[in-house]
Design a protein that fits this description.
The chain has one domain. The longest helix has about 30 residues. The chain is mostly helical and about 90 residues long. The termini are far apart. The radius of gyration is 16 Å and the shape is flat. About 60% of the residues lie in helices and about 0% in strands.
């Protein structure tokens, strides 16, 4: 898949906040995957097979975070989570 790169002129604040937004979106994907994997186990479904099906859906990228895990072990995601928490008060 090829992406067309379109230059966008933004402020430093917009660029930094965009990075935080991307990281928090990724963290929420991991949280959602954790919930789904837990529910799959509860109903007797193999999460790996379900994730394989999801990766073929054109609305969900094959690069999506479909592997359960702990995003809080990622220092850059955790740093941006704390930053967002401070912004929101």
């Amino acid at each position: 898949m090829f992406w067309k790169v379109v230059p966008i002129s933004v402020t430093w604040e917009e660029a930094e906040f965009s990075k935080i937004a991307v990281n928090m979106t990724l963290a929420s994907q991991v949280e959602n995957t954790n919930r789904l994997a837990h529910a799959a186990k509860a109903v007797g479904a193999d999460w790996r097979r379900v994730a394989q099906i999801l990766s073929h859906d054109k609305r969900i990228s094959p690069e999506s975070y479909l592997e359960p895990g702990d995003w809080k072990k990622s220092q850059h995601l955790l740093r941006d989570f704390y930053t967002l928490t401070q912004i929101n008060g």
